[in-house]
Amino acid sequence: MVAALATAVTVIVKSHEARELAASVEPTNLSTAENRTRPLVSPLVPEQQRSLAATEDPPDAAFLAQVEHKYRFLIADVEEAHVDELRRRLLERESQMDIGSRSRIDAGIGKLLPAESFAYYQTLKDSDLEQHHLAEYTGGISNVAPLDERQERIVLEAKLRQKQRYAAVMRDVGLDRESLSKEERAYAHAGTAEALKQYMNDFLAEVAPALTQEQYTQLKNYETTEFARELSRLQQRINAK
User: Per-residue pLDDT tens for 24-65?
Assistant: First the structure.
């Protein structure tokens, strides 16, 4: 795994050197026009935006590391013989914005992984926001009561499980409708508040046994703030209907 990353980084450096040499003999205005922006790994997390070279160029080291981190627990579970192929497909998927292309890549990953691992992949592929929150929480507590890798995995997987249950409840709230009556709006407000409260409480209850008191207290404080922010966002969305 480390060897594959080292090879990719070497290719990146050589590719960048070749582009710099070409730029020295070409007009500056052409090099700007030739660059294209690679899509975000997640449109939900602005901090993850990055401008890379054209899609035919190798991905940069930061992109490689980010994809590796996003799927780190999945990669750790996969048989060593399939790791390189899985990584290649994950990199390909995360660099694509087109839904059809992503669906095609997902199908290929489904053939590569056993059913349980593929189901895990399905939860991780849309986990950018949850992973961003986990990184903020663990980063903020790292000097006080750091989490080990096992604890981080427990927190992330619990959040994703409860997220799926929350999404199922929210389908009945009516946020997908273009407009709401006064009664429907009141129902949506009540349903959203209750669903978010249940989501947070169930998540915290699930992870509590794996955390120390300090870790749990800090997580509860962080999640209370984040869930309040999400409730405010959804309330504004409901009021606009």
Answer: 434 444 343 334 333 333 333 333 333 333 344 556 888 889
What are the boundaries of each domain within the chain?
Answer: 2-124, 128-239
CA 194 to chain centre: 25
Picking from 172, 233, 230, the residue whose alpha carbon sits closest to that of residue 199 is: 230
3-state secondary structure of 45: coil
Q: What pLDDT, in 10s, does the model give residues 123-139?
A: 999 999 999 999 999 99
What pLDDT, on the 0 to 100 scale, is given for residue 59? 60
Task: Spell out a b/e string for 217-237, using b for 16 or more CB atoms within 10 Å of the CB, else e.
Answer: ebbbebbeeebeeebeebeee
User: Quick one: tokens of 144?
Assistant: 């006080």
Q: How far, CA to CA in Å, does 141 sit from each of 171, 178, 217, 226?
A: 34, 42, 11, 16
**Which strand (E) or helix (H) includes residue 169?**
helix 149-170
Tokens 């890549």: give the residue: 105
Sequential DSSP letters for 117-144: HHHHHHHHTT-HHHHHHHHHHHHHHTTT
Phi, psi of 169 (to 5 degrees): -65, -40
Predicted local distance difference test score (pLDDT) of residue 58: 58
- 14 vs 27: CA distance, rounded Å: 21
Interior angle at CA 46, CA 42 and CA 51, nearest 5? 80
Its pTM stands at 0.72
Q: How far apart are the first and last CA of the chain?
A: 49
